[in-house]
Predict the structure.
Amino acid sequence: MRITPGRVGVALLAALAVAGLAWSMTPRPVPVEIAVVTKGRFVATVDEDGKTRVRERYAVSAPLSGRLGRVQLKAGDRVKDGEVVATIIPSPAPLLDPRSQREAQEKLGAAEATLEQSKALVERARAQAVQADQELTRTRTLVERGASAAQALERAELAKRIADRDLRASEFHLDAAGHELDQARALLARYANGDKQALQTWNVTAPVSGLVLKVMQESETIVQPGSSILEIGDPRDLEVVVDVLSAAAVEIRPGAPVTIEHWGGPGALAGRVRRVEPAAFTKVSTLGVEEQRVNVLIDIVSPPEQWLGLGDAYQVDARIVTFAEDNATIVPVGALFRRGERWNVFTVENGRAEAREVSLLRRSGRLAAVSEGLGAADRVIVYPGDRVSAGTRVEPNR
């Protein structure tokens, strides 16, 4: 049979049609997002927002009922120990009441007991401070000789700072207890004088030196015993309070390093966890879900010169370190998926997806650390989706 050019053309067209049909029926590569596995330092953190607060704040309240004069102090004013911060003109009737006189006598006894308790606390705090100082000296000597680790010196320095702060706080409590006793004695003396001095002015004094944090009652008004007038504290002695989920609080340990961000100044501040409170509380989230939260107390260890602008109840963001490991295998969290009881990822090998089991070490935010199953420079598929399975041809997203 003679082959003509027309027949050759028809055959070529048929071959092209068959090839096009086969090409159209061949599965096309699935576009995917690919990430490269890396090696480096992995840090797991608990990220929450918190607030600063003055560690030791003192509420100045009215010791008796009467007319409170207008308070001239404003928030931010500095006051000294024993300075007059408010005046009260006592009401004459309660001063002649026998029951009120008996209550004043009991308050005097309670103030004397509080003073003795404060003295005992000061002695204990002073002894702890001396012990912490001696322990720091011993630890520094051992570190210099190479007989102890540098972490032991850091713990000893932290214990010394905490002991000094506790001593300072106990001394503040002792000063406040002494002022309460003086006020109770003076009040009882007024009862003894009877109605002669009932209309004299009663001076309310500051229990400690510091700054006025808040004025609760500024205008002249009638007050009852215990009515709050103002608060005094030292804004240089700040701590950060962060409430975290109870499940996350289990992993947080005292002494854990903290990074304080978005506090309003340049850079980040360094902090350290001082205490994880043992009791949780219920808090309703913005989505209306009840959550069990735990307060974590954080000391700011950066030099005070770096955070002079911080004040009481300022909002900050805290990153609390719960786990850290050097030379860890790091992979995006979006690449992990569960298959039964095991974690898996899809790796890209010769243009195809291959399933691989991995052992998850820890997750934190968008990254995770794995101990087995992956190596540096492996390529994994992030958020693979339903179209990807073992053997699927894939190509990077464009």
Remarks:
- Residues 98-145 form the longest helix (48 residues).
- The longest strand covers residues 315-332.
